[in-house]
Design brief:
The chain is of the alpha/beta class. The protein is built from nine helices and eleven strands. About 35% of the residues lie in helices and about 15% in strands. β7 and β8 form a beta hairpin.
Length: about 240
Amino acid sequence: MTRVVSLVPSLTEAVAASVPGALVGATDWCTHPADLDVVRIGGTKNPKVDRIVRLAPDLVLANEEENREPDLAALREAGLTVLVTEVRSVPQAFRELDRVVAACGAPARPRWLDEAEEAWARLPVPNARTTAVVPVWRRPWMVLGRDTFAGDVLARLGVDNVYASHAERYPRIPVEELRRAAPELVVLPDEPYRFTADDGPEAFAGTPCALVSGRHLTWYGPSSTEAPRVLAEALRAARR
């Protein structure tokens, strides 16, 4: 069996569901599946390269956004094979997931991946569209900008990111400027920053705020099967 180390929570969940037993290492942020019992190798931005090398994996899974090139270069220099994914849209996520599970030794395309693709294909064209800002961090405030997976997810659900044409993918925008943009909605995920009912909405008084699952908004593994429904429900609740 192929020995795999994953540096990406989404891919960790995908491999665990598709090729049980293949994972030998994962990051501290890989929280799904909840019972995953593998060696922890640090964070996505600061993996312990020496620990990964000692695990002698056949394959290391990474992502061009979540992981740093110097760490990936160090792994390659140690003789390891690193598969780097790029995921900036829902269709691209499915293509990359196909590539990942095949590289990890899945005997066939997993059923959950078919179900996820079907769930997004069945999504109806929204009757109306809503403009939104989507903070992903606070202190300083950072929002979704151009060319992001989460932005594409929201667009398919009828939510147009105010900063979708920004030059940066995750620009730092002062909260006063976010308010002046006059969005119809503020989308607040619970990761990477954990926005809650008491931490985030108070900065946008008078504007509806949708508290959404970060895993469903930003992950692209098995959670994609229920993401359209879960996110749509949260968005509807905020706009009532």
